[in-house]
Amino acid sequence: MKIVTVEPLGISTVQFEKLQKEFNAQGHEFVFFADRNENPDELARRIGNADIVVISNIKLSAETMSRCHNLKMLSVAFTGLDHIDLDYCKSHNITVMNASGYSTVAVSELAIGLMLDVYRKISHFDSQIRNGSTRANYLGIELGGKTVGVVGTGAIGTQTIKLLRAFGCNVLAYSRTERKNVVELGAKYVTLDELMKNSDIVTLHVPLNKETHHLIGREQLALMKPSAVLINTARGNVVDIDALAEMLKQGKIAGAGIDVYETEPPLPQTHPLCDAPNCVMVPHIGYATREAFDIRADIVMDNIRKWIG
Fold first, then answer.
1. Edge-to-edge strand list for the sheet holding 170-174
2. From 179, 235, 271, 290, the catalytic residue
3. What is the mean pLDDT of the chain?
4. Phi and psi angles of residue 212, each rounded to the nearest 5 degrees, phi first
5. Residue 235: active-site member
6. Which of these is catalytic: 63, 284, 290, 291?
7. Are residues 124 and 262 part of one domain?
8. What is the CATH number of the domain that holds 119?
């Protein structure tokens, strides 16, 4: 079979050569592209007559896949699959396997980091001190003792709860499925409305699908305390970003930490969050750590090995 990795995925040349040797020894062809290119025509060219394709979060449409007649399996180097046309894959018997679990620690740690940044204005004061300013009598806020609402208690949400409990936070949880291990960590399951009303911080850890699109809309944001903060390291469209920007500008909620958007960065300068006050924005870095990328490469290749059998 022909295996094509359409982008580098953080795999070193040494790793690539090792993988190529392994798959070649089994009679397979292993092709590796060392740059990322999201152009649909270039993607179709790279995939070509491949049987198995490795891709991360590049959009892969039905139109692109329809030009790749040998495609039988996608090993997706990402947790979410909302960028893949799964209906097309299902109708054409293309197996899709994700890299679930590779970034659990990475994303949960960033969520905590964004909370601390919003509460202590770390990013803000970095630029201030470089410009000769002082704290100007600013008093930060401590994370310990706060009530944090965790929306989604899968692997990342659960890991975030563990970190929050270590900081001494009270945790409310909302999820489609209530988990015994989450309750044992000291979290209390409540309705989404109760969570939004009673949390000092709301942090989102759900996948994007039809049920979660704008799960946190204008109505839900309006329930938050004026002193509350929203953290999103899940998917951009889980939140109504226009409504969030309005709430921040009107002072109806106190701050936000955002890693994900409606589209992948770069964002236009006219993006509604760019001029929103007390909003820490980072360019979708939650999953991107050296450790997570190493784990991801292992999962992606193991998925291929299992599928080949």
1. 188-189, 170-174, 147-151, 201-204, 229-232, 255-258, 279-281
2. 235
3. 96
4. -105, -5
5. yes
6. 284
7. yes
8. 3.40.50.720
For 18-46, the pLDDT digits (tens) are: 999 999 999 999 999 999 999 999 999 99
Is the predicted pLDDT of residue 16 greater than 90, yes or no? Answer: no
- Residue 93 in tokens: 């018997």
**107 phi/psi in degrees, rounded to 5:** -70, -40
Q: Do 185 and 241 share a structural domain?
A: yes
Q: Say yes or no: 67 and 195 in one domain.
A: no
Q: Assess whether 213 carries a catalytic annotation.
A: no
Residue with tokens 């803000």: 124
Fill in the amino acid letter for 236. G
Find all residues with CB under 8 Å of 179, minimum gap 6, and list them: 153, 158
- Of the candidates 83, 179, 264, 271, the residue annotated as catalytic is 264
- 97 and 110 housed in the same domain: no
Please write the tens of the pLDDT for every residue from 220-241.
Answer: 999 999 999 999 999 999 999 9
What is the extent of the structural domain holding 265? 104-281
Domain count, the chain: 2
Q: pLDDT for 59-89, tens place per residue?
A: 999 999 999 999 999 999 999 899 999 999 9
Is the preceding peptide bond at 266 cis, omega within 30 degrees of 0? Answer: yes
Task: State the pLDDT at residue 14.
Answer: 85
Residue in the structure block whose two tokens are 């970003």 = 241
Six token digits for residue 227 = 């002193």
